[in-house]
């Protein structure tokens, strides 16, 4: 396994394979997140997938995001899963029971929660790629940006309106799945307090049958909690204010908040270019500033790392995960603190940890006693996370570091299996192979 996974394909072959994966996962209407494990559209996956696809076919990228935006709830929420007809994934739409929700659109089936708001970043990137392509692609993508902007604004407004429940300025998640880092140690403490108050309706996990080693997936205890939170939300029919009031899991998420802050800025810049109303632009700037202030105020003075906030327990959470680098995504820290955080990021606790195959930040520091090199969000490297930091470095003027993320991301993925995540010391591809967002960020790195 190790030998195969460390083959290094030439760039042109790697790009061809990435394109093949994305085309292979395209059902014609949706590019699924992965061929078997994830046969539906995921919200933040779709944003990254569209960036990769834009290098192959700008119009296909646009239609992918149009499909996601068509599933936007009437109150503005972008749902975390848009379901295809496939029944090989659990939980499916029936388990969510989102047909009970007042704001769910009629013609689609979705989950009842959201994921990090990376979509404005995606639209901006696709616009730039489409403009470079010129001709009718340019016209199509410009028309799309115009059409997508109000939906993205409504999505950000929903997050601001319903997910800033306390004074910290952080945006809160009501389920670990909303963070995109499902079983990260970030959530261990808040999840420990999630106790099913009634018998869970029976269920069978389908994910375990789709991976080579079930130890790479979350545990059954974790799944019971994930499913219990769905029961709670279904009980209040996904009314967003009630969900926040009732959920036994409510955590200010620094990583999502930092993404929100920088996405608001990107959306504001785009809105300025498109001539959107001044009031909306001012709002976006205000939301960006509030979320950024929340991220910066969460920083632990002892470590310099940002911390999530367990709102139910009224306590800071200090698991040593990649999310601690959130201030590098949104920017705005005082220069000396930002430099210290960059040094930590590149240093021996993280990207420079001795023996790593590639200098992409692991999901948990290998120096942490809780680090598990093959276990999902508890240690492995996720190429898409490396892409996010590379994008932010480029935006904030750290071009050398941005280039390092690109080179190291390509080193990690060079064997061409497009793993969901990677064992940091052997480079073995873990979870699903043929994972769409991995193929997409590789294409973006190569093009
Ligand atoms: C639950 C699709 C998604 C990603 C998440 C990742 C994983 C789902 C799962 O897969 O989550 O949403 O079933 O484990 O954690 O970030 O969007 O790739």
Structure description:
- With 447 residues, the chain is mostly helical.
- It is built from 18 helices and 8 strands.
- The strands form 3 sheets. A 4-stranded antiparallel β-sheet has the order 3-4-5-6. The chain has a two-stranded antiparallel sheet with strand order 1-2.
- Strand 5 and strand 6 (315-317) form a beta hairpin.
- Helix 2 packs antiparallel against helix 18 (436-446), helix 3 (43-54) packs parallel to helix 6 and helix 6 runs antiparallel to helix 7 (135-162).
- It starts with a helix and ends with a helix.
- Residues 33, 38, 42, 44-45, 80, 177, 180, 182, 207 line the site of (2R)-2-(alpha-D-glucopyranosyloxy)-3-hydroxypropanoic acid.
- (2R)-2-(alpha-D-glucopyranosyloxy)-3-hydroxypropanoic acid binds next to helix 3.
The class by helix and strand makeup works out as mainly alpha
Largest sheet: 4 strands, antiparallel
Strand ordering within the main sheet: 3-4-5-6
| Overall domain count | 1
Detail the topology: elements first, then pairings:
Layout: H1 2-5, H2 11-24, E1 41-42, H3 43-54, H4 58-70, E2 81-82, H5 93-96, H6 119-133, H7 135-162, E3 172-173, H8 176-179, H9 188-192, H10 220-235, H11 240-246, E4 251-252, H12 254-274, H13 278-297, E5 308-310, E6 315-317, H14 326-330, H15 335-346, H16 383-395, H17 399-413, E7 421-422, E8 429-430, H18 436-446
Antiparallel strand pairs: 1-2, 3-4, 4-5, 5-6, 7-8
Helix pairs in contact: 2-18, 3-4, 3-6, 3-18, 4-6, 4-7, 6-7, 6-12, 7-12, 12-13, 16-17, 17-18
This protein binds (2R)-2-(alpha-D-glucopyranosyloxy)-3-hydroxypropanoic acid.
(2R)-2-(alpha-D-glucopyranosyloxy)-3-hydroxypropanoic acid binds next to α3.
